[in-house]
Amino acid sequence: MFIGHWAPSLIAATRKDSPSLPTLFIAAQLVDWAFFLFLMLGVESMRVTPGISVMNPMDLYHMPYTHSLLGSAAWAAGFGALVFVASRNRTAALIGALVVLSHWFLDLLVHVPDLTIAGSEPKLGLGLWNHPAIEMPLELLLTFGALWLYARKAKPRPFALLAVAAVMLALQAVNWFGPVEPDVTLGTSLLAFFAFGIVTLASWWVARGALSSQ
Cβ-count burial of 89 within 10 angstroms (0-12 exposed, 13-18 middle, 19+ buried)? Predict the structure, then answer.
């Protein structure tokens, strides 16, 4: 799951008292921001293993602090606390925390068994990465269905909305069809940060022109 992780952000942004759309976009990928940082620092690990799944050759064999359910819940609680400190709004804090936590459950659908409850066996994952005919339309439906709902509710400027849709679609196409690096390097994390960052910036542009934010 890649751009599908932003679907809960778009849906949550239509709720009263929710955090801003870019805040929710950060929330949706927070555990991956943390994972790629930990990857750089050697705290968590992955390797390229061709054939580990049909769609994704990344062997995510050690990520107990970000992609365990307990770890994701801790990141969610921390993010919710920050939102509460900034806004003094319990509803906004809860929405932000739930968007963070949604990441683990969406990953559960697509990952081969590499997720955990608390960092150790058993490893979990329903493995839709082995079924591209299901995973690909599901991800597009989640993402663009949520974008359509957000557009109906928030009424952003059409050009900004089309731009964020195009950015997400382009990044997803690269993720699905682009070349795969043979090894995990510093560039792996930097590329992930670039992708997350550019979509978050695009979400800020969309939210800036939405009627509900004026």
Answer: middle
